[in-house]
Amino acid sequence: MNSIFGVSGQVLDSTLQQMGRRLIHRGGASKVHRLTHEAPVAFGVTGSESHLFSKNNFTIVADADIYNKEELHQFLVRKGISVRPESEAELLLALFQVDGVEGIEKINGDYAFAIWDGDNQLLTLVRDYCGCRPLFYAALPEGKGIAFASEYKALLTLPEISPEPDRDMLQCLQYHKKLPVGRTLFKGIRAVGPGSITMFSAAGQRVDHRKMTSVQPLAVLSNEAEAVAEVRNALTGAIKCRISHPERIGIALSGGIDSIGIAFICRHLFPDSEIHTFTAGSDTQDEELVVAERVSRSIRSIHHAVITLPGLMKDHLEKLVWHIEEPYARSESLQLFKIGEAAAPHVTSLLCGMEADALFAGMPRHKILWMMTKWPLFKDVFGEIYDLTQSGLQPASVMGKILSKSYFRHKIAPVPKVSGGSYVPVKTVFPSSNNQLVTTFLSNVFQGGACQDGQKLERTFAAWGVRYQSPFLDRNLIRTAFGISDQLKFKHGKNKYILRKALEKYVPEEFIHIPKKPQRMKYDLAFAKVLDDVATHYLGDGRQGFFNPHDIVSLKKMKRNGAYPPETGMRLWTAVLTQIWYEQFGQL
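The chain above was modelled as a monomer; its predicted structure follows.
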């Protein structure tokens, strides 16, 4: 694991060293290289120096894992270019110099990198198609330059960068539990978007911006046998190429079919490997832990059960927020944080099933999309219910209000209002055609969603120096999944039908039909008591913050028999973490 950072503009050595120290968890001690070109430019990296490379007035610093190296090397050889096989940075620079954006699009991998073109005095920032690796930037005031880093806490060491909170984005976070692609909670800091190639002048002015071509299927598969074979081959290939050192494999194993499938395929591909599996749960009787233990016995893994009790909130939330930076996840983020800690002594990376649901329509909200295709006359009403569950946007139609009241019975918690924030959610736009509506919608939102969802794993694992990898973010598997018909994603009333069929070759029958359950801490009486305590501590009177105390009190009153409904607990959790974020970052 490593991180990258750099500045185009005047910067003190001590500041560069401080940037590196902020990122030390991502690979260890930092190395800084001051370029000798006309403009004052410095690049830095934590971890191996092989991630920094210079040639012919070009310098690159990269955080990258490339899964189709052999194919890319062959492409360069045909162009008469040879690069060292062990250097991702050298390979990336060669592809960029030879073929520009088209060269970058040939890569199947997880990466973020920066290139300084000394001839043209240009800085190029690039992020992989799904945004698996983080990359942030901020222009320095008065045209004095631009800075970038894998985590924005490193940017905040620069005295020129003012940490001014963006109250509209803070309000957006309370509604959606995530932010629009490219935005952060600071006005002056941006994230490089997934699949983006952005160029800046030495002064920090954006001069060009391009997006990678959208991954599209070659055709729509409706034949079940063909679809099963395609999904199975693509998933197996995606897993295999991500395991460069099969002697020891790490898997974040939940009780769901996605990570269970990964576990069994890993054992099939690597029968002699030492496999470590990691699962979080509230106690030894937690169903996630019980199922994971059974899977572990079946694949002969070394299993690590990670017990996450509510008391962890009292002394871990500040550590958690420091590492995730944007408090976009629910209580599962604390579980993932502890999984990363447990994994660090044993493995350097963790495979997980992130975004399988987004490819194969595995979430409860995706059934709403399916209902739109079955009852198109009620499409607008179903759209209102979708928005209610995803952002808290209340239905406007009479039918929507009736459905909301009869089904949810006021279970949807009110969204706390941020002082000075004017953001309000807007209605989701759904595909106009019912033909392949589910897959079309999933395809339209996948890239941004993968980037947003993946942050909670990338950051919580990186806090301990562990890489996050998901085969479901493989470009070949993405293309395959979006070529499967809606009828094969939903069948016999089951989500992810085709994925389950594809996994039958590897996964025993007892695990194939395990239902989908959200990963989160147990929202019981003990959880409610600790959450109330931390809410009182961080959101109580006399503490400068963003929220109206009345909104917080209203959430606390929604407990039932002393426990929080999941949606209500999540709203209060997000408000608490938002306050912690402000105290940690907004006052640096």
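The domain at 3-211 is CATH 3.60.20.10 (Glutamine Phosphoribosylpyrophosphate, subunit 1, domain 1).
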